[in-house]
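In line with agreed milestones, the collection of sequences with tokenised folds has grown. One record among many is set out beneath this paragraph:
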Amino acid sequence: MNKRYWLSVILSVAVMIVLPLSTVKTAPDNVGLIAFIFLLLIINPLYMIFIGYHCGKNIKKYWSLPLVTAVLFWIGAALFLEMSIDGCILYCVVYIIAALISMVTSFYMFHKNPKEKMSVKAKAIKIITFIAVILAFLAFVIVTTATLG
């Protein structure tokens, strides 16, 4: 394990455990509910997509990082968000799927044949595809949350 991996784990601890803890300790009840929804539907999914994107650059070294981050989410959700086991598992699975999709997309973007020059059009198509994957995931999270609640 290298230094960059451990920095990513520390950042994951900050996002998945320290952020919910600080929300519980500092936010009033009304704001706390909005903050938790913001965490579950925006911050955590985008962070998992970022982790997947980061891991796709070097899958051999960073393949376990999305799993570690999902476990950290589970710990933070169980301790501070008081979520049910079913809710934790659902969010963990959705977050892992988002990270894996992002990882595969990132791997495809960065590990094309280096001798091939990529045109501007091809780069634009890859970026649009990546953004579409992110938007599809966010729509999935919103629909899943709406059906549970």
About this structure: The radius of gyration is 17 Å. The chain has a mean pLDDT of 80. Residues 120-148 form the longest helix (29 residues).
